[in-house]
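[job 4471] stage=fold_predict status=RUNNING
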Amino acid sequence: ILVCILAGMILTSCLDRPTFPDVPSISVNEFYFKEIPTDDGSVSIQDSLVIKLQFEDGNGDLGLASNETSPPYHLYDIVLVGNDPLKYGDNDTLPAYNCFDYEIIRRTVSIDGSLQVTSDTIFVIRNPNHFNFFLTFLVEQNGDFVEYNFWENQCAPPFNGRFFNLNTQGDIRPLTGELRYGVLSSFRLLFRNYPSIKMQLQIQDKALNKSNILVTEAFRIDEIIRR
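[job 4471] inference complete, writing structure tokens
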């Protein structure tokens, strides 16, 4: 999964600054899928989803730097038993193995003078606040739309991500502009058996204030492909 985020914005001047709530708000400008050609000119099985959101925020605390991984922006918590992490099978209260509750940690150690790779399956508590852009796919099943669970179906994380700090000066100021979010994957193969899908979108600021939730109209990927 490759996620890249671009942002274009307007930092308003002192003379004509608008007043926005400190909780961010978003609306959809447009979204589409872009086919990716291969070197021989054919179409790759991969495609690129591009989402363009209009955003507003009253105090400008939008975005996370790549090195902002300390609490509350860490990826997950590890449960310790003494000084050791709690591992799969350590006790009967732990859930059965699944990709969401466990991480496989590999490390290289010296055993009898030779380097060997060992692995531990540790229990983790994932932290949603590691991300500030939340993308959920809803798939149509029997006339209803339900969340597609990437952890269960693909043993992979969903397409949440991070966008960088939009207020580079770091002062308190209103921000408005367009946030462009790009995801590279094989969506046509992934969702080909569903009549239609929707996307649910939300962003979050540094103070952990979540924006309004947007849900797109139902669509099929072939309907919004740009070649």
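[job 4471] summary: Residues 79 and 128 are 17 Å apart (CA to CA).
[job 4471] exit 0
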